[in-house]
Amino acid sequence: MKKQYNKKYFSDHDSLPGYIAEEIAFILKNNGAKKILDVGSGTGKLTKFLKHKGFEAIGCDASKEATKISGHIRANASKLPFKNEEFGAVLGVSLIEHLTQLEGEKFLAESYRILQKNGLIFLVTPNFNSPLRFLKGKAWFGYTDPTHKVFYTR
């Protein structure tokens, strides 16, 4: 059975710790990024935070439920509806593990297409080589979301 990205899913999984949001804003500022695309923006917490910090932040998500909540653009990560070199940074926070291997490759290619010269791509994903995975086994947090498709290492 395919897990749906519904209201309950976002209630259970869509969180944004303040320290992570602050670190992302710090990295973006220090790299001179002004126009930001948050791919897989979920309910829009990070995009909203970045707008409050003065960035021109745009969010997109493939989920109808997420875009209904956030008001963001509905778009698939592997086919982004933006111009070449439009963004100073592309964010994929807890996104790439939800894509198949091929979708992940297309997402990266699309990200590089829409990034400005010297643009920044910033990804957050569970580290499959994390010592916690080995210690916790099946209870590891990366396994707790059944919509995770591919795990990555550093």
Question: What does this 3D model show about the protein?
Answer:
The chain has 154 residues and is of the alpha/beta class. The protein has 6 helices and 5 strands, in the order ααβαβαββαβα. The protein has a 5-stranded parallel sheet with strand order 3-2-1-4-5. It is globular, with a radius of gyration of 15 Å. The model has no long low-confidence stretch (mean pLDDT 93).
Sum this structure up briefly.
With 154 residues, the protein is α/β, with parallel strands linked by helices. The chain has helices spanning 7-13, 18-30, 45-52, 64-70, 101-114, 131-136, and strands at residues 35-39, 56-61, 73-74, 87-93, 115-124.
List the helices and strands and how they pair.
Blueprint: H1 7-13, H2 18-30, E1 35-39, H3 45-52, E2 56-61, H4 64-70, E3 73-74, E4 87-93, H5 101-114, E5 115-124, H6 131-136
Parallel strand pairs: 1-2, 1-4, 2-3, 4-5
